[in-house]
Amino acid sequence: MKDVLENIEGQFEMFQVLDENGEVVNKDWMPDLSDDDLKELMRRMVYTRVLDQRSIALNRQGRLGFYAPTAGQEASQLGSHFALEEDDYILPAYRDVPQLIWHGLPLYQAFLFSRGHFHGNQFPEGVNALSPQIIIGAQITQAAGVALGIKKRGKKAVAVTYTGDGGTSQGDFYEGLNFAGAYDAPAIFFVQNNQFAISVPVEMQTNAKTLAQKGVAAGLPSYQVDGMDVLAVYAATKHVRERAVNGDGPALIETVTYRYGPHTMAGDDPTRYRTEDMTSEWEKRDPLVRLRKLLEKKDLWSEDDENKVIDDAKEDIKKAIKKADDYPKQKVTDLIDIMHEELPNNLQEQMEEYKEKESK
Amino acid sequence: MAQKTMIQAITDAMHHELKNDDNVLIFGEDVGQNGGVFRATEGLQDEFGEERVFDTPLAESGIGGLSLGLALQGFRPVPEIQFIGFTYEAMDAINGQIARMRYRSGDSKSAPITIRTPFGGGVHTPELHADSLEGLIAQQPGIRVVIPSTPYDAKGLLISSIRNNDPVFFMEHMKLYRSFRDEVPDEAYTVELDKADVKREGKDVTLIGYGAMVHTALKAAEELEKDNIEAEVIDLRTVSPIDTETIVESVKKTNRVVVLQEAQRQAGVASNVISEIQERAILHLEAPILRVTAPDTVYPFSQAEEVWLPTHKDVIDKVNEVINF
After folding, report:
1. Which residues of A touch B242 (CB under 8 A)?
2. A218 touches chain B (CB under 8 A)
3. What is the value of pTM for the model shown?
């Protein structure tokens, strides 16, 4: 009788390309990105950090609704997205709004989603994505379906779904991996292990030493990646995407990362479950700092560049908030109208009732 | 026209739709080479191939998620949940996800999915096979619940469901699968959704039911005829939403109503039917509306099911109560 667990757990080592000092420590896997690409990655991370800061401020002013902070997770979110193509289909969790924005969702619609206006979910044609999933893990089985559909259509694309460390405890997580594996469907299961599911630390979530190893049970190539290293995340995602579009099936990526802020802006207080020391330790590994160091060494990034991105982001956010403010108010009659393709009898009656109410 | 059982009519419907629309996909546990545990998908994989008709791993929530994902790629999935009780495993996928797709996406995406599942008592199954769980889905906006009572309706309603651009939960009563045959045209045809059907005309009392209870009502109506009571029997066919128009029209004629459901009494479709009638036609009623239902227990272990399930005698008793009120 042989216990393979020890061997499996011993096999997972965290994949890194760029260390905390901005040094390339893994030249074999240094992605083939042009200087412009590297600058664009930096721009997106800085922009998204500003968006996060402004979103938190707007939420505190009562000008934004549901919001899950993203700072700390930029490398995981944007590095993985940077490896995707327009035809790839994203099934995000609620913290994954940045990927949607860089996939083409207009910023004012992201704000309307946050405010609970249904227009925020009316994605423009060509934005291949679902709106953020609220039920933990529900999107993972759907990703297997999208991936199987992509395969049946013969498209050169993947379905990529995001969840967190807590999401890997759900039955749907394993079902989604297993279905995609059984059908050899082009799916990428992306786990952002940010150490806490609201307040529960990952060590209490599971006895597994890594979340990546959970993919092994379903027969998926699985990788643990430094989630604060945008180049490692990009390289890993690019690698599994290429495998998938070439017909080699799904894969799982766990990124080891951290959210600096609270779980959401709806009253979560992180000081109840983690220390400030812990947060400052993680901040030393910050993904923006790391890439900035590399770019500065290459003379590709200056303070002026950084400030321009910050100003641009602020300007965009201001315009988008204005556009969201100006968007027509949502009505119950609008919502009744979109329950079905054609209104059934019961809703026809209720439509009349609410037209009357809303005309007063 | 040929005489067909309900299961044959259901296979027929899927056969037509696989032929009619390349986007139709049929999948579930054992639906491939095995043809499904009730043989509903018999021969379909051989004819249409593994790309269109295929087995899934054994996980109902996964089947639900797979369906929605395929719908997002423009397919028209017709998944099978092997037995009704396994629906519990797929509740988020159905009520939390599929039913809400159009709404959640602000009408920019849809989920044209028809989830088929056998249900219903009287065939001595183990636990969690025979329950009537229509109420769980009927409470969820955005998805229809359709339950045929005859082979003819089963084929037409299933074709309509598959062609509909919104999701349908399609429940097939196991006792009706092979218990009788009906004239079923060989060609494709539709039966309108959201529309009840008067299965028997009468002027003295209206019996309203769906699924196997339609036959219980018809049997009661035959017996009542001997006592010169003419019962009208309405088959809801779609239990969510309810066709109030057909019901109210009948009530205005008969002034007396008994509502049947195989499900437990509490919080069921029958209660909803009764509320609709009292809101719309109370002044036409000569007696309280009575219900014939199962008791508020879990579906019984099979040795007790004959007593637990409502019978035509229960219906006759209630009819006599409303006639003699």
Report:
1. 346
2. no
3. 0.97
Question: Which residue in the set A118, A172, A182 is minimally distant from B61, CB to CB?
Answer: A172
Taking only the tens place, the pLDDT of each residue in A6-54 is 888 888 889 999 999 999 999 999 999 999 999 999 999 999 999 999 9
pLDDT at A216: 95
Q: Is residue B204 in some structural domain?
A: yes
* Tokens representing residue A82 in the block: 């940077």
Domains (range + CATH), chain A? 2-329 (3.40.50.970), 330-360 (no CATH)
Domain CATH for B269: 3.40.50.920
Residue B232 CB partners (closer than 8 Å, separation 6+): B198, B200, B201, B202, B203, B205, B206, B207, B250, B253, B254
Segment B97-106 mean pLDDT: 97
B129 a catalytic residue? yes
**Pairing assessment for the beta strands B76-80 and B53-55 based on DSSP bridges:** unpaired
Q: What gap in Å lies between CA B135 and CA B264, rounded to an integer? A: 10
Q: Choose the closest CB to B166 out of A131, A176, A340.
A: A340
Instruction: Give Cα separations from A54 to A119, A196, A231, A268 (angstroms).
Output: 21, 23, 26, 18
| pLDDT tens-digit map of A131-187 | 999 999 999 999 999 999 999 999 999 999 999 999 999 999 999 999 999 999 999
pLDDT tens digits in sequence order for chain A, 360 residues long: 888 888 888 888 899 999 999 999 999 999 999 999 999 999 999 999 999 999 999 999 999 999 999 999 999 999 999 999 999 999 999 999 999 999 999 999 999 999 999 999 999 999 999 999 999 999 999 999 999 999 999 999 999 999 999 999 999 999 999 999 999 999 999 999 999 999 999 999 999 999 999 999 999 999 999 999 999 999 999 999 999 999 999 999 999 999 999 999 999 999 999 999 999 999 999 999 999 999 999 999 999 999 999 999 999 999 999 999 999 999 999 999 999 999 999 999 999 999 999 998
Whether A173 contacts chain B with CB within 8 A: no
**Which residue in chain B has the smallest CA separation from A178?**
B57
Residues of B in contact with A141 (CB under 8 A): 61-62, 64-66, 69, 93
Q: Which residues pair with B257 in a beta bridge?
A: B206
Handedness of CA A269, A270, A271, A273 (dihedral sign): positive
What is d(CA B318, CA B215) in angstroms, rounded to the nearest whole number?
Answer: 16
Vertex A167 angle, CA A177 and A281, to 5°: 120
Same domain, B17 and B163: yes
Tokens coding B242 = 């309810």
The domain tally of chain B equals: 2
Residues B61 and B161 in one domain: yes
Given B143, B160, B184, the domain boundary residue is B184
Of B130, B158, B184, the one marking the end of a domain is: B184
The pair phi, psi for residue A339, each rounded to 5°, is: -65, -40
Same domain for B180 and B201, yes or no, is no
Closest C-alpha to A150, from A124, A182, A184, A126: A184
Identify the burial level of A269 via C-beta atoms within 10 angstroms of its C-beta, where 0-12 means exposed, 13-18 middle and 19 or more buried.
exposed
DSSP 8-state secondary structure symbol assigned to residue B86: G
CA distances from B175 to A144, A281, B7, B158, B211 (A): 35, 65, 11, 18, 9
Domain of residue B115 covers 2-184
